[in-house]
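Agenda item 2: iron/sulfur cluster complex prediction
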Amino acid sequence: MSPTDTTSSSARPERGPVPPRRTEQPLLDTRTRPLRDLRISVTDRCNFRCTYCMPKEVFGKDFQFLERDQLLSFGEIHRMVRVFRDHGVEKIRITGGEPLVRRKLERLIEMLAYWDDLDLTLTTNGSLLEQKARDLKNAGLKRITVSLDSLDDAVFRSMNDVDFPVEKVLEGMEEAERVGLLPIKVNMVVKRGVNDHSVVDMARYFRDKGPNYILRFIEFMDVGATNGWKMEHVVPSRELVERINAAMPIESVEANYRGEVAERWRYRDGSGEVGFISSVTQAFCRDCTRARLSAEGRLFTCLFATQGTDFRALLRGGGDDEQISRRLQTVWGARADRYSEIRTAETARLRKVEMSYIGG
Ligand code: SAM
Ligand code: SF4
Ligand code: SF4
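Presented output:
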């Protein structure tokens, strides 16, 4: 039996052999890219207002977030994952909005952890991690990514724009380390003139924390239509490599697998690694194997998409797995996205879907 209902007293499925994938053929898009990763947004709400993601002026008290019944239920998400897995998905990332504000998220984790051949992880702003890390681990989460943009408390508070202290996020990471949600990847979005002076401090701090932590620098991206993106705010990864190298020598490392998003570098003295995610200056669309499912069940085949395909109506209208599978094959089979390869000042102004809606 596998769970499909969030109302049952325990979502933990009976442990027994996990069924093999039904389809061994990878699903390919028009550029022969297989579908390998699914990012699932479980809420469009967040307790932060990061200026580059959910600026307060737009996401204020009058902003219409999704209502509870508009969100996919855990049972519906579970069904989607079952079909996606059959089509070759190997990695699931739970995201948002802030995923830890979704009630009883650990039950969804428990349901998805049933497939022990899936690499299951979650991206969080870390604000609720200290309370939730142990339950997440017990539910079957394997590892975690925490976003942190500066160690400078004043800079961090002004970037999250809700005056949240950096110390609380660091405590959340320590708890995640204690319970074994490892490795902990740390995402830092770098914005010129805002937090780029924190880059070397961040690199040194997480290098000194040892191999359980892997820091990744993310170029500020023109996601959505509200964050006022300009090219001059982007600090190219090349420049960051030079800055870090001048302080602590680094050398590049081979990718772990095709399609790995972060370019890997290691400290020459053997003290660990850092990653660079360069969506703006070094597009990686050629190997992009990711799809994104919004909290209300729309599937997006690119982070910069302007529209998605609804699966919720199919799920709620009695559609069976076969119908979900056919729709997925149609959508992925028609996929031709390569936004980062063709980005211009004009495309940056397009009305794209918000990152807090489809997840990072
Ligand atoms: N709230 C969670 C968090 O912040 O980790 C998960 C959702 S958030 C949208 C996922 C990731 O997207 C975060 O690491 C965040 O820093 C990143 N992000 C958001 N807006 C971005 C932007 N404009 N450019 C680059 N990364 C961005
Ligand atoms: Fe919230 Fe994450 Fe967006 Fe920040 S980056 S506003 S924490 S969803
Ligand atoms: Fe993938 Fe779209 Fe990003 Fe290119 S721009 S790497 S296709 S999500």
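Discussion summary: Residues 51 and 159 are 6 Å apart (CA to CA).
Owner for follow-up: CH.
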